[in-house]
Amino acid sequence: MKHTDFIFDPKKKWETFDTAFCGEYAGKKEAEKDLKKGIKRLSKLQEKLYAQDNYSLLLIFQAMDAAGKDGTIQHVMSGINPQGCQVTSFKAPSAEELDHDFLWRCVKQLPERGRIGIFNRSYYEEVLIARVHPEIILNQKLPIKFKIQEENADFWKQRFEDINHFEKYLTRQGVVILKFFLNVSKEEQKLRFLDRIDNPSKNWKFSMGDVKEREYWDDYQHALEESLRHTSTDHAPWYVIPADKKWFMRAVVSDIICERLELLKLQFPKITTQMKAELQKAKEKLENETI
Predict the structure, then answer these.
(1) What is the pLDDT of residues 57-96, one digit of tens each?
(2) Do the beta carbons of residue 78 and residue 250 sit within 8 Å?
(3) What pTM, to 2 d.p., does this model score?
(4) Which of 60, 74, 121, 233 could staple 90 via S-S, CB 3.0–4.6 A?
């Protein structure tokens, strides 16, 4: 099973992407074993990422409701040092955020060098939910003509271009971008919604807004395909991860992250001759110290 198999293929029809694909896994236990290995592997890689201090890692998660973004982030990142990681969940923009460009609030949350930043939803909401509900654009006070009843093809094309230019810029600055779309089926989403309703311990996860947005399923699928088609690039490809089986999804996401970090050939900083001499002096001073 190659990771390149999960990179969005614009030649494929969106409806042919298999949401229940499990690869070569015979079942859940085998995938969970690989996830445990991935957690340890990522922990070691994060330490080198932090120590080398040249790159940062930006993980972007997008999905339909109940696809498992929160759980994937929780499980995959469970072994890393919290000091080197930050998670940002983007909700509806505030009044202050609406007074800035659509990328502004995300730029503020970009990870520092040596750190891992996780976007639970992101600036891609601006070409997803904003496309399904174009009235959102009218609240952004843009000096353009935007009509809800029209396709506004040029507007969306410009947004895709802005995103691609932004991600290219980040890549040139040492930000490694991994974008995951967790692809859950409409049938599986229904089952998960019902589970949230029937299970008292999960009631808090459910919102009537989830059911309302489900009515726009086909519109979201169209917006998703368009977004991925225009923003999956060589420097920041989209990975479409089958999400009907959470255990498979988590194992694959973990493996992709680790493999991408390993390609960086991360190393702990080399100690120079001068530094070695200073360390020796410090050692002698500590050994001769009287308490």
Answers:
(1) 999 999 999 999 999 999 999 999 999 999 999 999 999 9
(2) no
(3) 0.94
(4) 121
